[in-house]
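Changelog-linked ticket: 2-deoxy-2-amino glucitol-6-phosphate example.
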Amino acid sequence: MCGIVGYVGKEQAAPILLDGLSRLEYRGYDSAGVCVGGDGALKVAKTKGRLSNLSEMTHGGGDLPGTFGIGHTRWATHGEPNDVNSHPHLSQDGRIALVHNGIIENYMEIKEMLLEKGVQFASETDSEVVAQLLQYYYRKTSDIFQAVYKVLHRIEGAYALGILCADKPDQIIAARKDAPLLLGHGDGCAFIASDATAIIKHTREVSYMEDGEVALLTADRIQVYNALGDPIEKERHVIDWEISAAEKGGYEHFMFKEIMEEPEALRRTIGPRIRDGRIELEGFSVTADTLRSMSRLYIVACGSSYHVGMVGKYNIEKLLRIPVEVQLASEFRYCDPILDEKTLVIIISQSGETLDTMAALREAKARGARILSIVNVVGSSIARESDDVLYTWAGPEIAVATTKAYSTQLMLLDMITLYFADLLGTVDEKTYRKLVTELQTIPDKLEKVLAQKEKIQYFASQYFNHDSVFFIGRNLDFALGLEGSLKLKEISYIHSEAYASGELKHGTISLIEDGTLVVALSTYGPLLDKAMSNVVEVRARGADVLALTTESGEEALAKNATGVLTVPDTAEMFLPSLGVVPLQLFAYYVALQKGCDIDKPRNLAKSVTVE
Ligand code: AGP
């Protein structure tokens, strides 16, 4: 979703803003713009389309001299993606400029009020209303800072704001509610940004803004104020990853790089959490008593993170014998969930900023539930508001389609499951030791899976021109199919569906005809025979079947499938950790064959910060 960057310092702002925006491109956007202040005026350049257009238009920022400014990549919500609706937005008198991420829910009512007072609007956006309202209050108060507070009291919804005022050169004002925004402390300069990738080239020291806070940035100082306008001290955090982690490093696509990084990412997730053959979870406060008093467990997330929860349900219920409800965050918050202080809610999010997931967390907390979150981005909103947080340590994930974050989330959830089973004594010592030993082999086994990439590319070249694909499987393979199907559709734009194999005969099988591609997931040993029967059924109706199974299942599947991919044998609970990688690669190679924009698929954003 929208990306924000702001700079105030001694250097020329525009090239720094353009570079920062280029590092936020991965968030997904359809237009971009910058505003730079200098000589008592604010100059805006903005355009629909790629950032390269903006860069060309401004000669790399050279046309916009000035040492303070704000930049924005827009993911359209209110008003089509065009030049006028792009940010920054100027107030009618051109003295105030603003960038916004989020949605102003009561913008129509404010717009009507301002229209009645003769204010003219240039765009259709909710964001411009904030710029015009700022002008309105600035004229009344003659104090831009006071005007900002008045605006914040008036608007409803979610926002991260970056504001410039021509009368206050060398200053940026930032404000946040329910949308990500951080402050960067540079040497003789200061930054605002939607995430650290935009500014890590310049500084590693950041402070995370909280809801209701307003910040005043000058080159030498960042002062933050709380919702009442009182100055407050903010903690500084040091970003501990290198800028190279957010660069392609010779790979054609971030997605491929991130798939290749999976074994290493898993080692980072697993390694530090195993001591003397036992799983230890840092600073984790859930006790055996808490677990025993728990009547049920919720897993709440969106998209691929939700699919991790779907796998987790099978494993947790099997090992802990506690009922698990997996819910989509966007549904959970509006379904009057049955929660109390005896409920544990596991929140899963790569970005830690997904708005629906964040809202679900707050809903659960308000009802007394205990929150454990699995998050990748350190210091993100979800991490900060949870009772316990466990980081996946996957490193920055740039491709919109998640790969290494999914795999590390899955592994961490498996580790939590084993940790809980050990605490509760629902798994015997021998089995526990065996599973902990086995999980440490997963990164190496994954290397073996990656070594089959040419074979996967071959199958992709056979099937890339299909316009409909079905992923079928039972139990853990069904949960795995949900992710395989999402991966394929989001980056290759091929329509695909994931079905529990047993459901096929209840309707979907009518869609199977000559040449339909069915990806039959058959890694789960106990149901291999059932999986085979489903393969035979769809083959009999003309489908091409690409099967995914374990090395020990290969011979059986090869008899009936059109093609077979394998993963090494492992304990059942870890099969999806291996099985997901061929599906990620398959989606990648299909999208590559089709010439799709793999890292930035159409209409999608990496971090979904609006409802
Ligand atoms: C998957 O490839 C997606 N891009 C998407 O489904 C993602 O998993 C979802 O938006 C949740 O994001 P989060 O993990 O950052 O909360």
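Closing comment: Example verified and attached. Residues 404-424 form the longest helix (21 residues). The longest strand covers residues 31-38.
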